[in-house]
């Protein structure tokens, strides 16, 4: 089966909430970064009339989502990224379960728990941009997935004190290594419990101006962040140029988990594949395959790296430095893949696949 790969970013903000650039500027930044699509997710507002293709020859598709949260709940927690509802959902912000149910069941949309283990920058003012906004209501059910890697949330971890701030501000590529271990552990626990949880990776771009005494610095331009952590989707047909059709194609792929998270700043992750072969046929990320006597899993990154296959938090197979990894699964479960490479003098998480579900 031929699959078409498209690269996008699903979390960013404009001046309609707390971002610096409007939609046309964001589209231009996405074109400069080489993205195929972006989804704008302003806080508690859905902006009509701006979605569509931008640039000469329809270079980038800009879509609308929303980051919903209860502004009256202090401290701030439980930010939910909402996609494909075609309307504002902020009126349900005070009840995360009702919000998720309405998005999924009523609107046939997608709901992702944003930056779930977000922590504050300890030395920043408690009401500034360095606050921590984790997800705390883990008893909710029915959500589509989790934002596994939020670049800006992980970047905050690189500056535990003022001494480390200059490197974090000016050379983030030397500091950001991987998603938070707590997030990966939670993902694996949920998968081990039998839940289907899609993982995505994003920039959380704001274009924030960071104040350090008399010094001011823009924390990172949109085009830079769009080259960092992205979500790569696989679709069964090519984008058509029709906004409505292509929007559904992209959101269907994300909702089904036919996507991987790529740290594209370290190197382009286009071309990555994680697949399975069994007696009943084949499967891609997000799909089921029957175990029978065994299922052959294959990880194929676009270049050599440290490849791992993980089942419920346990590494069941790995190659230190290779261009592929093949493993025969003998147990049912959710299997996902990771690839790590050296970048800026250290090993970095480069690719995180979504699971293939091996069923009894």
CATH topology of the largest domain: TIM Barrel
Can you count the helices?
7
**Class inferred from helices and paired strands:** alpha+beta
User: What is Rg?
Assistant: 20 Å
Question: Can you tell me the residue ranges where pLDDT is under 50 for at least 5 consecutive residues?
Answer: none
Please outline the major beta sheet.
16 strands, mixed
SSE order in H/E notation?
Answer: EHEEEEHEEHHHEEEHEHEEEEEEEEEEE
Helix coverage percent: 10-25%
Strand content: 35-45%
In short:
This protein has two domains: 4-263, Alpha-Beta Barrel (TIM Barrel), CATH 3.20.20.140; 273-359, Immunoglobulin-like. The chain is globular.
Structure description:
With 360 residues, this protein is α+β, with helices and mostly antiparallel strands. It folds into 2 domains: 4-263, Alpha-Beta Barrel (TIM Barrel), CATH 3.20.20.140; 273-359, Immunoglobulin-like, CATH 2.60.40. It is 18% helix and 35% strand. It is built from 7 helices and 22 strands. Strand 17 and strand 18 form a beta hairpin.
Keywords:
globular; alpha+beta; 7 helices; 2 domains; Immunoglobulin-like; 360 residues; 16-stranded mixed beta sheet; TIM Barrel; four-stranded antiparallel beta sheet; single chain
Blueprint (SSEs and pairs):
Blueprint: E1 4-9, H1 23-33, E2 37-40, E3 52-54, E4 60-68, E5 80-83, H2 96-106, E6 110-113, E7 145-150, H3 151-156, H4 165-170, H5 181-192, E8 198-202, E9 208-212, E10 215-219, H6 222-225, E11 229-235, H7 243-255, E12 259-263, E13 273-278, E14 281-284, E15 288-290, E16 295-300, E17 305-311, E18 314-322, E19 325-329, E20 333-343, E21 346-353, E22 356-359
Parallel strand pairs: 1-2, 2-4, 6-7, 7-8, 15-22
Antiparallel strand pairs: 1-11, 3-4, 4-5, 5-6, 9-10, 11-12, 12-21, 13-14, 13-16, 16-19, 17-18, 17-20, 20-21, 20-22
């Amino acid at each position: 089966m031929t699959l078409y790969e498209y690269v996008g970013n699903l979390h960013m903000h404009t001046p309609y909430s707390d971002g610096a650039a409007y939609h046309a500027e964001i589209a231009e930044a996405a074109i400069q970064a080489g993205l195929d699509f972006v989804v704008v997710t302003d806080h508690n507002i859905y902006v009509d009339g701006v979605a569509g293709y931008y640039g000469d020859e329809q270079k980038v598709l800009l879509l609308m989502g929303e980051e919903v949260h209860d502004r009256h709940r202090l401290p701030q927690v439980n930010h939910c990224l909402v996609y494909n509802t075609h309307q504002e959902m902020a009126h349900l912000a005070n009840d995360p379960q009702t919000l998720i149910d309405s998005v999924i069941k009523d609107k046939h949309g997608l709901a992702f728990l944003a930056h779930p283990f977000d922590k504050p920058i300890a030395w920043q003012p408690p009401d500034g941009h360095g606050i921590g906004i984790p997800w705390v209501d883990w008893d909710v059910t029915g959500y589509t997935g989790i934002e596994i890697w939020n670049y800006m949330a992980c970047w905050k971890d690189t500056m535990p004190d003022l001494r480390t701030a200059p490197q974090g501000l000016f050379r983030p590529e030397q500091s950001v290594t991987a998603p938070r271990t707590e997030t990966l552990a939670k993902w694996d626990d949920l998968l081990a419990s039998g839940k289907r949880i899609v993982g995505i990776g994003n920039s959380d771009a704001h274009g924030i101006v960071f104040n350090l005494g008399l010094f001011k610095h823009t924390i990172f331009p949109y085009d830079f962040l769009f080259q960092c952590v992205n979500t790569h989707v696989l679709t069964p047909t090519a984008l058509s140029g029709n906004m409505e059709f292509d929007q559904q194609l992209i959101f269907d792929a994300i909702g089904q988990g036919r996507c991987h998270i790529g740290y594209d700043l370290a190197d382009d992750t286009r071309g990555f594949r994680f697949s399975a072969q069994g007696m009943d046929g084949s499967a891609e990320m997000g799909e089921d395959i029957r175990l029978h006597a065994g299922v052959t899993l294959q990880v194929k990154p676009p270049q050599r790296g440290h490849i791992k296959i993980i089942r419920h938090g346990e590494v069941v197979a790995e190659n230190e430095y290779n261009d592929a990894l093949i493993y025969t699964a003998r147990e049912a479960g959710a299997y996902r893949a990771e690839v790590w490479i050296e970048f800026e003098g250290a090993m970095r998480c480069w690719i995180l696949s979504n699971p293939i579900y091996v069923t009894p």
